[in-house]
Design a protein that fits this description.
The chain is mostly helical. The chain contains 7 helices and no strands. It starts with a helix and ends with a helix.
Length: 181
């Protein structure tokens, strides 16, 4: 009898800890899934940076190819976490460097749905400026979008936004000179 009295607390403790241990067993899987997702997004970001560098170096064909690879990685990440605004934002950039206006616009729409800030999100206006300048050839619209970004951002324009603004203004000035204004 005495032995049974000693086993009862062990059995009760086991009954309590088995579900806890089972839950803890699920944590490494969730962490592994999150780590795999982060790795996928990081890879896509590196490939996207390569695409941007190739574009800047005048190697647009290779840049488009790398951007399409980044877009494929981001699409894979999007299937794993279809609410991540960061993936949508990066996908806009992949569309721009792949020179795929339709995809870039689609990802802007998705980004707008995913960001909690809506039209008040400075990154939304940056993404729009990228598309308007690089794919649509509308530098004036890009400048207006970057102005809106600057109004909304507490830190002002980021370095990439300053570079894009410079590009938009010089493109706009060139078009005015070419038009004879």
């Amino acid at each position: 009898m005495r032995r049974a009295g000693r086993l009862l607390p062990v059995v009760l403790a086991s009954a309590l800890f088995v579900p806890v241990l089972g839950a803890l067993g699920a944590l490494p899987r969730a962490s592994a899934d999150e780590a795999a997702y982060r790795h996928l997004v990081d890879r896509a970001t590196r490939v996207l940076k390569e695409a941007e560098g190739l574009h800047a170096a005048g190697r647009r064909d290779l840049g488009r190819e790398r951007a399409r690879r980044a877009a494929a990685l981001l699409a894979q990440a999007d299937r794993q976490k279809p609410t991540d605004a960061n993936v949508a934002f990066l996908s806009v950039q992949a569309g721009v460097f792949a020179e795929d206006a339709e995809a870039a616009r689609l990802w802007i729409t998705r980004y707008l749905r995913r960001t909690p800030y809506g039209e008040k999100d400075p990154n939304l206006h940056y993404a729009r400026a990228l598309v308007w300048l690089r794919l649509d050839g509308r530098p004036g619209q890009a400048v207006r979008s970057l102005d809106r970004m600057a109004e909304l951002s507490p830190r002002g324009l980021t370095r990439p936004a300053h570079v894009l603004l410079y590009e938009a203004l010089t493109t706009l000035a060139r078009s005015l000179v070419d038009a004879g204004h």
